[in-house]
Amino acid sequence: MSMTIHADPVPLRVDDGGAIRVGPSRVILDLVIHAYQTGDAPETIVHKYPTLHLADVYAVISYYLRHRGEVDDFLRQREAEAAELQRKIEASQPPLPDLRSRWLARQAELEQGHVSPPRG
Questions:
Q1: Model confidence pLDDT, tens digit, residues 77-105
Q2: In the beta sheet, which residues pair with residue 14?
Q3: Selecting from 1.20.1250.20, 3.40.800.10, 2.40.30.10, 1.10.10.10, what CATH number does the domain 12-112 have?
Q4: Which one, of 10, 23, 17, 2, lies nearest residue 64 by Cα?
Q5: How many CB atoms lie within 10 A of CB 49?
């Protein structure tokens, strides 16, 4: 008895925004690889992201192990782009001095009943 060996495609696709998604889900490659790098088993990753298929997670990890340098370069580039976007957003926002301390003071006043809660 013989068995046919199939060459399954890697379950990765590039969406319109340039993000790489895993299988038919909306989960990005970045999340799966980060979870794997921090020690999550494929079953744990599927538990965290239930729209993923276990076979797809194994295939993506296998792809990562075969193309680690290229994937790591891609992930570093995505992190740099995200950091730059965050910097631009923060630079465009007005300064809010002592926002945290003002918020904590407001919370303390609310807890003590000195101020009415805001209406929504």
A1: 999 999 999 999 888 887 777 888 888 88
A2: 20
A3: 1.10.10.10
A4: 10
A5: 17
